[in-house]
Amino acid sequence: MEKLNPQGIVDSFKKALGGGFINGEVYEREVAVKKNRFRRIWIFVKREAFHEAVQHLCRIQEYPHLVIISSSDLGSDVELIYHFTIYYGNHLEEISVGIRITLDKKDLKIPTITDIIPGAIFTERETQEMMGVEVTDIPDGRRLFLEGDLPENIHPWRKDDKKLEKYLRVLPGRKPKGKE
Question: What is the pTM of this model?
Fold first, then answer.
């Protein structure tokens, strides 16, 4: 596929995803002394179209770089942003692409993308254990960061998860909060 400009990328997602496409935004600005262009695209998709959105990104560039999955607790929802870069390695042509999905906390499931991008497993495992999102069909769902004796239903990045307090340890030489 020929290189698309940012708006062309948004338009291609809209066409490829149909009703699964919610919205797309292009953000461009000049940065640094040389006034190089920084280009970012936000693609908002429905959960049902998410896997196809990642496949479509792979049609735009065969191997997009998955940087990380970020997540936000929005109260009754959790927002996931899969941060990718495309056209990397080409001077001043790199574009940041964020694929955004909002999940209801009553149904925190998202399909794995390890069948498309095998290296996604680490950031998917992190999202699963820290935010409580169930990544369906993940090939290895073991914990990555949290200790094994911590109960499975504790998710440190969730604002509504108050169960963590009793598991926090005070480092040697420090005083517990409220006892300074």
Answer: 0.88
